[in-house]
Amino acid sequence: MHTSVVIGPEALPALAELLARPAVSQVFVLVDGNTARQCLPLLEKHLPTSYQLIEIPAGEGYKTLASCDTVWCQLTEQRADRHAVLVNLGGGVVTDLGGFAAALYKRGIRFVQVPTTLLAQVDASVGGKTGVDFQGYKNQLGVFQAPAAVFIEPQFLQTLDPRQLKSGYAEVLKHWLIADAAAFAQHRRLGWLTDNWTPIIRESVALKERIVSQDPLENGPRKLLNFGHTVGHALESYLLTQPGREALHGEAVAAGLVCESWLSVQRGLLSPEELDKIETFVLSVFDKLAFVGLETAAIAEFALQDKKNAGATIQCTLLQGIGNGVFDQPVTLAEIAESLRYYHRL
Ligand SMILES: NC(=O)c1ccc[n+]([C@@H]2O[C@H](COP(=O)([O-])OP(=O)(O)OC[C@H]3O[C@@H](n4cnc5c(N)ncnc54)[C@H](O)[C@@H]3O)[C@@H](O)[C@H]2O)c1
Ligand SMILES: O=C(O)C(=O)C[C@@H](O)[C@H](O)[C@H](O)COP(=O)(O)O
Ligand SMILES: [Zn+2]
């Protein structure tokens, strides 16, 4: 099944057209505190006058069942029927949570993604992974459910904090490392900042869609899109338990890209020179995440809950050369901890 993704100035008019169809009974718009203030004004003129707003607090800490409860209560109070559409206006937290809440309400109503962060525009809004965090584990509850459509307006990025922009760049880098060596080489020369994100968004979405279309439910090649995430999610989850030390998803993934590239060298899949290129570029863009050597075991433990694992075996996506990901590579807990110690020493 193909999901329509509209990118550019035609995106919001196309959304308006979809919402005006007679088959749509009610329109609900899910926002967080920031997208309510900073993104809704741009969207509002493309919405029907009768839309209802649902707001959750901003941030990863609210990607929870409790926030879904807020969504479900409001849909129920407003007697939303199966022909209602939920418009998710926000970053990956809103698109993941809104997609999940919509998929469960009355066994599923349609939802559309209107991503407003770079991370959500290049990655989270596409591919149908939805979910929430649970018991400290990332996306522990979720379903694969394709949105009715995705509408990407790069203009939303104008109000985005530079730290958030960088966080999204980690997922772009991931895409190049698993599947596009030429783009990695080109952007390593150019540096990460640009005043026109549209071509990068288009290329990332196309690359991700190509992989997802081969394996929508992640039984095989879709695991490539999880490069950097075995260690990245472990770090993100651990730091979420440490008040004041929380890392953004992309920041943790950036560290994970280095650790998992190091693991690729240990397996003889990647050369030390290639690792050097990756870590030099990553560290030129991202500040190093701070943790002490004694914490590496506790961080690594989180990898035991990674969704790619088979039983007790941690299965990582690694690189067989830059631009060529390989999935289902067994690694031990001790190796994950050692990769974190390598990163810590850089
Ligand atoms: N489903 C997937 O395939 C997928 C892929 C990658 C990441 N994710 C998930 O996405 C989440 C991270 O998403 P994120 O980085 O977008 O974080 P986020 O949704 O928390 O957004 C980051 C911050 O930016 C604010 N914001 C959003 N748009 C803004 C704008 N245009 N201007 C000003 N502020 C704005 C938000 O309110 C929030 O405070 C994680 O939970 C991650 O697990 C999912
Ligand atoms: O779309 C995918 O597949 C991904 O793995 C994209 C990741 O960037 C994203 O963070 C995803 O939510 C991770 O999913 P999980 O299955 O590891 O929880
Ligand atoms: Zn990710």
UniProtKB/TrEMBL annotation:
E.C. designation(s): 4.2.3.4
Cofactor(s) listed: Co(2+); NAD(+); Zn(2+)
One GO BP annotation of this record: aromatic amino acid family biosynthetic process
3-dehydroquinate synthase C-terminal domain span: 168-309
Enzyme class: lyase
Pfam families hit by this protein: DHQ_synthase, DHQS_C
Presence of keyword Protein transport: no
Subcellular location: Cytoplasm
Involved pathway(s): Metabolic intermediate biosynthesis; chorismate biosynthesis; chorismate from D-erythrose 4-phosphate and phosphoenolpyruvate: step 2/7
Catalytic activity: 7-phospho-2-dehydro-3-deoxy-D-arabino-heptonate = 3-dehydroquinate + phosphate
GO cellular component terms given for this protein: cytoplasm
CDD domains found in the cross-reference section: DHQS
Single annotated GO MF: metal ion binding
Signal peptide from the UniProt entry: none
Keyword annotations of the record: Amino-acid biosynthesis, Aromatic amino acid biosynthesis, Cobalt, Cytoplasm, Lyase, Metal-binding, NAD, Nucleotide-binding, Zinc
The 3-dehydroquinate synthase N-terminal domain, residue ranges: 54-166
Chief place of localization: cytoplasm
PANTHER family, A to Z: 3-DEHYDROQUINATE SYNTHASE, 3-DEHYDROQUINATE SYNTHASE, CHLOROPLASTIC
Family according to the record: Belongs to the sugar phosphate cyclases superfamily. Dehydroquinate synthase family.
Function description: Catalyzes the conversion of 3-deoxy-D-arabino-heptulosonate 7-phosphate (DAHP) to dehydroquinate (DHQ).
The name this protein goes by in its record: 3-dehydroquinate synthase
Gene from which the chain derives: aroB
